[in-house]
Amino acid sequence: MLTLYSYPTLFGVADNNGYGLKVYAFLKLAGMPFLHEHIFDASKAPRGQLPYIVDDGETIGDSETIIAHVKHKYAVTMDDGLSEAQRDTDFLVTRLLDDLYWVMSYSRWQDERYWKQFRDALLREHPQLTEECLIAAKEFNAKRYYFQGIGRYEPDQAMARGLADLSVLAKLIPSIGFVHRPTPTTIDAAIYGFIANIYFYDIETPLKKFVGSHENMVRHCRAIHAAVSTPA
Tell me, what's the pLDDT at 230? Predict the structure, then answer.
């Protein structure tokens, strides 16, 4: 059976990282049977990054590569019939979510307004962690942010970048149904992976306030959450 390796839960979502939750939601919506292993240590993962899967002895990393593998190998039909324009939209939204990821991560690990609350939530939900290991992770992430670029922003500037990303998503998500159809497609799973990690996040960041103020985003997030939180 396919096994998904990704970060642990936080605030009631199956993975506190947008990419892992995206893959989790995709597998659930596709009706794929799989095991889910939560880990913190990504050193054995392809490129040292989570999530990854092991499928019949084959190890595959990167959320988009994982999804493409599963679609091809198991003939997942979720996106059958999408137009070229819709697939182009999916590509662009996927890249937008890549940008949003850095702001979300920054808001947790680098923005001192929210860091202590995030740290305390991790320690509370995952007592095997220590404050020392989280400080080491914070320092490691600060280097990542600096070289990626987001770490050179002031906190409000970083949040403004994320709010711009969310503003585009708010225009894309419909008031009923899902992005392309009355039923979810892969891009809905991707959006959920990130929006759920903002909406259910129990710390009042500007990102969370924005999502909570948009009924269409809340409805979409809750609809996918309900669909993927029940047994397959």
Answer: 66
